[in-house]
Design goal:
Layout: E1 2-4, H1 5-17, E2 26-29, H2 32-37, E3 42-45, H3 48-51, H4 60-69, H5 71-75
Parallel strand pairs: 1-2, 2-3
Length: 76
């Protein structure tokens, strides 16, 4: 399960909290602080150049730019 952004990270946290098993949890976010609070064992901060470690502010175009910036790391 890959949670992207704040909402996706919240969904991953909820699934972990409820004890969901049999899947790998990954959280991807531009917001470094939000990632530190997330429970996913695999975390990837993206778009550091675009957002300076802050959130995308709910703006899809900023999220897209962040994802494109780190597309190779995401693919790994």
């Amino acid at each position: 399960v890959i949670g992207v952004g704040g909402c996706g990270g919240n969904a991953v946290d909820h699934m972990i909290e409820k004890g969901m098993t049999g899947v790998e949890f990954i959280a991807i976010n531009t917001d470094a602080q939000a990632l530190r609070r997330n429970r996913a064992p695999v975390q990837l901060q993206i778009g550091n150049s675009a957002t300076k470690g802050l959130g995308a502010g709910g703006k899809p175009e900023i999220g897209r730019e962040a994802a494109l910036e780190d597309r190779e790391r995401i693919a790994e």
